Amino acid sequence: MKRVHNARHGAEAHLVRGFLESHGIEAVVRGDLLAGGWGELPVDLCAVWVTDDAAFAEADRLLRDFLGGAPAGHHAAAGWTCPHCRETLEGQFTACWQCGRERPI
User: Fold this and answer.
1) Considering the entire predicted model, what is its pTM?
2) Sequence-ordered list of residues with C-beta below 8 angstroms from that of 64, at least 6 positions apart, any chain
3) Which of 20, 33, 87, 91 is placed for a possible disulfide with 98 were both Cys, Cβ 3.0 to 4.6 Å?
4) Do 82 and 101 contact (CB within 8 A), yes or no?
5) What is the mean pLDDT of residues 70-92?
6) C-alpha–C-alpha distance, residues 66 and 96, integer Å
């Protein structure tokens, strides 16, 4: 098991864990229940760990891209028009803010 991310708080750690698991990489959060001890305990006590060492490199790459904004940057340029109400939307949005319809595939 390898640590892939030190989180500032439990919510961030669980977000990262969920992101990795959505890409098929099993991960666990450790130390999130120790938040009450911050100031008395080491700073990096809340962390995300990849359970399979062989998946560490892929997890690290995915996480660096994600935290660096690569997915948002990739979709930002690909604007789209809602087929239902004809609202023009920026590429990072998956649903229309005018009528609520999901972006077509």
Assistant:
1) 0.65
2) none
3) 87
4) yes
5) 82
6) 23
